[in-house]
Design brief:
Elements: E1 7-11, H1 15-27, E2 31-35, H2 38-44, E3 51-56, H3 64-73, E4 80-84, H4 89-97, E5 102-105, H5 110-141, H6 146-155, H7 161-168, H8 172-186, H9 191-200
Parallel strand pairs: 1-2, 1-3, 3-4, 4-5
């Protein structure tokens, strides 16, 4: 199954701006969907849709910063590029601190917009890939029994089998069996890889 095509979502209350941005982006070969308000965007946005958001800062109703905050609360990965016609530096700083990837002044030209959008899309690809990898790691770890998980925590602490056996009250042979099952279930080819997987999942060594 092919991956969804990245979309540049443009949210601006001015029709002329939406048309101009859409023309610039489509001329660069990008897929574009426009919205005239933050509310309209939220009603149609699918968080699984990859791409980026080109967002007007000052709009009636829900403004750009408020939409950014709403998306962050929903756990959205979508990178945001802010546009402003007011040169509002304090708001730009606030937007960047909250994770915006860029802040451009209107009228924006292709030389500034296209690189910013391409960079945002690449950031989205990376974030989604990392998120998918972490989801898969968690899925594998969920296959472990409570005892296997306990052994994993001891293993990533660098303990030997006999030390683990003493800590959990069993024999070394049983620990070896648990270790082998852990390696198999999480699909780790080596101890170093197992440690990296555990670190990615935030597992604390015992």
């Amino acid at each position: 199954m092919s991956s969804p095509v990245e979309t540049v979502f443009v949210v601006d209350d001015e029709l002329s701006v939406r048309k101009a941005l859409s023309n610039l982006l489509r001329a660069a070969g990008l897929k574009v969907v426009t919205f005239d308000s933050a509310q309209a965007f939220l009603e149609h946005y699918d968080p699984r849709a990859p791409g980026c958001l080109v967002l007007d800062l000052a709009m009636p109703g829900l403004n750009g910063l408020e939409l950014q905050q709403t998306l962050a609360a929903k756990g959205s990965l979508l990178p945001i590029i802010f546009l402003t016609g007011q040169g509002d530096l304090p708001s730009g700083v606030k937007a960047m601190k909250r994770g915006a990837v860029d802040f451009l002044s209107k009228p924006v030209d292709a030389a500034d917009l296209i690189p910013a959008v391409c960079g945002a899309i690449e950031k989205d690809r990376l974030a989604r890939r990392i998120d998918e990898e972490l989801t898969e790691i968690r899925r594998r770890l969920a296959l472990l029994t409570p005892r296997e998980y306990e052994v994993l925590c001891h293993v990533v602490a660098g303990k030997l089998n006999k030390q683990i056996a003493a800590d959990i009250g069993t024999v070394e042979k049983t620990v070896k069996v648990h270790r082998a099952r852990v390696m198999e279930k999480v699909k780790a080819a080596s101890l170093a890889e197992l440690v990296r997987i555990a670190q990615r999942a935030g597992i604390q060594p015992l």
